[in-house]
Fold this sequence. Notes:
The chain is α/β, with parallel strands linked by helices. The chain has 7 helices and 12 strands. Residues 8-238 form the ABC transporter domain.
Amino acid sequence: MTEFEHLVQLSGITKTFIDGGQQHKVLDTLDLIIPKGQTIALTGASGSGKSTLLNLIAGFERPDSVADSSSTSNHHQSSGTLTLLDQDTTHWQDKQWSRFRQESLGVVFQQFNLLTPLNVNDNIAFPLRLNGQDWNPWCDHLADALGLTELLNRHVESLSGGQQQRVAIARALAHKPPLILADEPTGNLDQTASLEVMQLLCELAAEHQTSILMVTHSLECANFMQRRWHLNKGKINE
Ligand SMILES: Nc1ncnc2c1ncn2[C@@H]1O[C@H](COP(=O)(O)OP(=O)(O)OP(=O)(O)O)[C@@H](O)[C@H]1O
């Protein structure tokens, strides 16, 4: 992969939802940069927009668009700029978003989105196979560290919530992407398993300069990250 200056950069991004006829501005002309290799804990009250921010960076949501005042036609432009790997995403089509997610992103979201017809092994190896790779010693290490070695042949739908969460974490880390977005990745895990997950994330970040943006309500988990961001009224405070 080519070198880049900023992994993620948001400039003046606004996101508004309309609910019951009322506009609700969740992100308000937000500016932020996630440099390569930085690990960040994201906190904020329920409903402050943490998941929305992760969804925007992953391309599952789009920023608001505003009427283009410089144009006489009915053109709209994005409320701000979202730059990923030094590329402006404003005009990215689905194909470019898919490629970014496939090659450069690992996500652990609240819904694990596991591939239910497949077993644990195939779920973990899925991002690797999309990138033309196969199961490798790093996958063995992930399975071991996450307590999944005995479960590799099990269908994911037969697993408990905590086991499914660990599969989702292994899948996000399998292809060693430069960016991990995690939304309460240890929400279903006990304290011992949570600490093991945090150690694994830190190991990946330290060895491969992986950047991590992790939503957490746990101070203990937040302390594993290098920086702490707090989202309030559509803005980030550090
Ligand atoms: N698709 C949507 N349509 C309408 N409103 C939405 C949508 N997605 C999110 N919202 C609203 O945006 C606000 C921020 O939601 P979001 O899920 O990003 O918050 P959060 O900080 O992740 O909350 P939590 O900690 O409870 O998960 C909430 O008021 C939510 O109701």
